[in-house]
Specification:
single chain; 3 strands
Length: 95
Amino acid sequence: MEATVYILECADGSYYTGITKQEIEARVWEHNEGVYKGYTSKRLPIKLVFMETYERLTDAINREQQIKGWNRKKKQALIALNYEALPMLSKNRQK
């Protein structure tokens, strides 16, 4: 069962990280239509800025939780596919 972890950029510049088992285009459409009340429904329109697909749902859930714990700069590095910068942007490294 495939699952996709995604990051949306909201109209206010904030990021939303989510997970879906449906086609990503359909999930983005649902966010933009305000199908689900919550964080993104108050910050429309949104746009998809990053996605990763996993074969195992548990792997996708773990990745979503990991990304949700990251600061903005680290999320921006991930969105830019700047994987080399990720370790230096960790909260532990900034102290």
